[in-house]
Amino acid sequence: MKTTRWLAFCLTLACFLLLLSACHKTQQQQASDRPRLTTKTTMRDVTFHSVSLNRDMQYRVILPASIAAGQKLPVVYLLHGGGGGFRDWSNYSDVSNWAEHGLILVMPEGGDSYYTNAVKRPEDRFEDYIVKDLISEVEAKFPVKIGRSSRAIVGVSMGGFGAIKLALKYPDLFVFAGGLSSALDVPSRPFSIKRISQWRGHRAIFGAWQGHTQHENDPYLLANSADVARATYMFLSCGEQEGLLPANRRFAALLAHRKFPYEFHSGLGNHDWNQWNGWLTILFQSLSEHINTRS
């Protein structure tokens, strides 16, 4: 009898501690969520059910505070980096400035997925979630223009990899793709005992070394075989103090060799939001030259 009561007490205590921990985590997220909105923009957080992932997912939208009845606007999908979340772009950059100028900005949750359909986690179909579920969800719920000419995708680090890879695989979806400090070499990074945990995480997504899934998600291989006549315009940047600089320079050289429409920038900076935020003016200026902003 005493044993039963003791077990019941332990279970009750464990449930209470889990609930307390979840509430504390939620409070921490709310306390650290400080979006940099301008007075001429507004923000909405949305939860929707992703068929590809078979679960509810969140995304954040920043759009002009005033949109005329019947007006449709171009849309830019902004992908966060590894270890981040859908709030990052709004909290750590001044990206809302460009929503003032007639853009709808969409920031989806991507976990640590590399925006790829994972091999060893078949329930994590994050590529399909972006290109099938999210785009149709946004177009049904917000006043965005439909079609390639009015749709762009941009990302930082892991998100830069995702933006460039998805543009290469689906050139008919995006007219412009931007990658800031893109982790382009992730699928083809060789094994390192110093980074064995990272290696295991990458292999869970990209599958066996030099296998089919790795190859079909490798930006270098995709760029080497792409139809350049159909290619998305690409904007690339990387800090000169970053370990990712050689990989980005090698990718830019491949684009130049194949005569892709692209631009590549490098300058002083580390792998952080200070550097990425500094590139936004040039990036959105380039984007405005390629995306359809006509009503």
Mean of residue pLDDT values: 91
Largest sheet: 8 strands, mixed
CATH class: Alpha Beta
Residue share in β-strands: 15-25%
Number of domains: 1
Gap between N and C termini:
75 Å
Low-confidence stretches: 20-29
CATH fourth-tier homologous superfamily: Alpha/Beta hydrolase fold, catalytic domain
Radius of gyration: 21 Å
- The oligomeric status of these chains comes to single chain
Helix content: 40-55%
CATH architecture assignment: 3-Layer(aba) Sandwich
Major sheet strand order: 1-2-4-3-5-6-7-8
Order of helices and strands: HEEEHHEHEHEHHHEHEH
CATH topology label: Rossmann fold
| Number of H- or I-type helical stretches | 10
Choose one word for the global shape. Answer: globular
Protein structure class = alpha/beta
Q: If you had to describe this structure to a student in words, what would you say it looks like?
A:
The chain has 295 residues and is of the alpha/beta class. The chain has a single domain, classed as Alpha/Beta hydrolase fold, catalytic domain (Rossmann fold, 3-Layer(aba) Sandwich), CATH 3.40.50.1820. The chain has helices at residues 2-32, 88-92, 96-99, 126-141, 158-169, 196-206, 212-216, 219-225, 245-257, 273-290, and strands spanning 41-50, 55-64, 75-79, 104-108, 151-156, 176-180, 233-239, 262-267. It has an 8-stranded mixed β-sheet, with helices on both faces. It is globular and about 55 Å long.
